[in-house]
Amino acid sequence: MKHFLDIHTTDAADLRSMIDSGLAMKSARLGRPRGAPDDDQPLAGHMVALIFEKPSTRTRVSFDVGVRQMGGQTMVLSGKEMQLGHGETIADTARVLSRYVDLIMIRTFEEATLQEMAEHATVPVINGLTNRTHPCQIMADVMTYEEHRGPIAGKKVVWAGDGNNVCASFLHAAGQFGFDFTFTGPETLDPEQKFVQFARAKGSDVLIERDPHTAVIGADLVVTDTWVSMHDPESAKERRHNQLRGYQVNETLMAGAKPDALFMHCLPAHRNDEATSAVMDGPHSVIFDEAENRLHAQKAIMRWCLGK
Ligand code: CP
Ligand code: NVA
User: Fold this and answer.
1) Where is the signal peptide (predicted)?
2) Which side of the chain, N or C, has fewer Cβ within a 10 Å radius?
């Protein structure tokens, strides 16, 4: 069963071929209306369940549109409205859904929920974000970097802010795609050691640098994300803002990176908190290409899962 659960648990050669296939599919569609079918219709006759236990704009729309372009059909399910939200086990839900659909994408809270779904499903399962990782996002980010600047291998990526789920998948990607990674943020919000260790074990140069201005020197890509994630308690907001204010990505910070450095943010953003509008809408920013590439990267991921 080819589940797409995380970047570090997927074969590096397969990850590479997914990026290349996403880029090829994107260029094959240039100029076509968004709803126009792809020529090859690899998902014809396939039904895909998209389960959301948290809000989503990009993941929801990009998966739905991607499946339709490839000739399949989708059903978007909210966790709360399913029996899953009323006491039915994940395992039973996985077994039942596997009798109706060919592929399951789930966005959930606990990593254990995703693991249990994958363990009991008899169809592939895709991680659409958990509290700990967001692999589809980082596949789109790698694709976006390479589309603009060529191979990401050997480049320096700097993450500023909270060492969260998106940061974790970036560390996995650093190991699998061979780029270096510097985290800059307060110690209390460091990424988990096991994510850092994975990247280092694969040969990536991972640094933790408390001074953001030192961190960005020589950066090819500067990335940030919201200071308060969907799984963080609302009560943490004020403390986090105080801790993270010094790590805002603004024009002064970007000026310390390489002149051709890119800026990314997975969105949704809190403009003028983690990054200023001047940076988000400025010459380094590729945030909307990044959002678009969710569509193309995930189409490649779904094809890989289904052996298409
Ligand atoms: N970046 C991302 O996953 O966005 P959504 O929460 O809108 O899906
Ligand atoms: N870190 C954010 C990413 C949203 C796409 C969250 O988990 O809320």
Assistant:
1) none
2) N
Task: Identify the band that residue 86 occupies on the pLDDT scale cut at 50, 70 and 90.
Answer: confident
- Give me the residue spans of the domains in the chain: 7-133+294-306, 135-290
| Ligand found nearest the CA of 159 | 2
* pLDDT, tens only, 14-23: 999 999 999 9
Structure tokens at 116: 């249990």
230 touches ligand 2 (CB under 6 Å): yes
Q: Which of 151, 134, 133 is nearest to 142 (CA)?
A: 151
Tell me the torsion sign for CA atoms 174, 155, 299, 134: positive
Q: Where are the alpha helices (DSSP H) in 86-224?
A: 90-100, 111-120, 135-149, 165-177, 193-201, 212-215
Query: What is the C-alpha to C-alpha distance for residues 168 and 178, in angstroms, rounded to an integer?
Result: 15
135 is in an annotated binding site: yes
Give the pLDDT confidence of 263-280 residue by residue, as tens digits. Answer: 999 999 999 999 999 999
The answer, yes or no, to whether any atom of ligand 2 lies below 6 A from the CB of 165, is yes
Note if the pTM is more than 0.95. yes
| Contact between residue 274 and residue 250 where contact means Cβ atoms under 8 Å apart | no
From the CA of 32, how far away is ligand 2's center (Å)? 31
| Rounded distance from Cα 287 to ligand 2 centre (Å) | 15
* Domain at 135-290, CATH class: alpha beta
Examine the pLDDT at 13 and tell me if it is beyond 90.
yes
Task: Point out the ligand 1 atom lying closest to the alpha carbon of residue 128.
Answer: 3
166 Cβ below 6 A of ligand 2: yes
Asked if 92 is an active-site residue, the reply is: no
> Under CATH, which number does the domain 7-133+294-306 receive?
3.40.50.1370
Interface ipTM = 0.99
- 7-133+294-306 and 135-290: identical CATH topology: yes
